[in-house]
Amino acid sequence: MAMSAAEVVGACIEQGVTLATAESLTAGLVAARIADVPGCSAMLRGGVVAYATEAKEQVLGLDPALLEHVVSEPVAAELARAATRVLDSDIGVGTTGVAGPDWLDGEPPGTVWIAVFDRRTELALTSKLQLSGDRATIREGTVSASLALVLQVLSEPGE
User: Is 0.90 topped by the overall pTM?
Assistant: First the structure.
């Protein structure tokens, strides 16, 4: 886990890019993992925890119509995009999903959408996860997958 965050920090610094998060399901855990890494202030712009649906609309400017199905690929992508806009970063990470134990939005616990948006290329990568375990396990799995997706975006050729 720490290795991935350290890799993300190193890759961002090496490429001279900044990163920000807009997190729902993970409630700031992605930003917190990155902040655990010494030297992260060179690349971490910040994070917005938009747990409530209203916060996604009011703080991050997501379209209310989009938020009718909050556990979805478009919401994850827009969270990632909003992170870059609101916090003026190159890379944005968005997380949304169901930590459980109850279903949400017609989706079972462990259903997660993550997205990473690169403002330099306008490229967004998204991924759907089906995780199992308790709330903490689902959230930690989401953090790991999010960091891996950031590394994937940073390794894509063609800026």
Answer: yes
